[in-house]
Amino acid sequence: MHKKLPAITEEEDVKAIVIMLRALASEARLHLLKSLYEHPKTWTELVLELKVNPKVLRDNLAYLRKSNLVQRKNPVGFELTEAGRAVMELSLREILEASREIA
Question: Could you give the CA distance from residue 68 to residue 49 in angstroms, rounded to a whole number?
């Protein structure tokens, strides 16, 4: 039996979830998250690995930072936040099952 998920009642929580889901609704951002899930990387490593225009990378990193999935790593680079790591570790099956339980 699956555990019952808590209801999302706060407007702030709803807005945060919408921002996060929009962040995940991009193939480019998903590739970026996957890359950072392997290990933190610098700007240059990301540009070379993903073969992406620097402006596109900048925009995608900004959106992922706004959604609290990615953060700057000191002294340089980027890494997943705890929320970003949790999103990457969820399986599609778990997401589908959870959505059925809510409905």
Answer: 23
